[in-house]
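Comment thread on ticket #2218

A.B. wrote:
> Attaching the input chain for the structure job we discussed in standup.
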Amino acid sequence: MKVLIVSDTHRKNDNYFTVVEKERPDMVIHCGDAEGSEYALTQGAQCPVYIVLGNNDYFSNLPRELDLEIGPYKVWVTHGHNYYVSMGNEHIRREALVKGVDIVMYGHTHRPSVDRSGPVTSVNPGSLSYPRQEGHRPSYAVMELGGEDGFHIRMEYL
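C.D. wrote:
> Ran it. Output below, let me know if you need it in another format.
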């Protein structure tokens, strides 16, 4: 199973559609700040799409957080702004541990990261529209189930 993880598209969806076409995922997880593009993002994927509420998703009925099961893994999806992710991932990782999940996926910082230290894996795919990391390349993550460690997460850049 291939899961595409994106965040912070902020209604600039061209890169999203390019990535969906390139990766052809079995599932898409959007970690918030779609800014009203939920329908377009869902229809353009041709697979299940899960989107959570970001701090810029005004007047939206999106869920604030999601608890999903992907294969044998418990996954918690949130935008992250309520967990101080701009200051680091320590708080959200502690919260994920308390929730008993295997993986937490979040956005908000526009900076990609994968942290597999400890019992919880944290994934921030960065932003496909407004990247803030050095080099400012749009980014996303792909999670694939299987292999020696059960799942593999790779960061990709446009």
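A.B. wrote:
> Thanks. Noting for the ticket: The first helix runs from residue 14 to 23.
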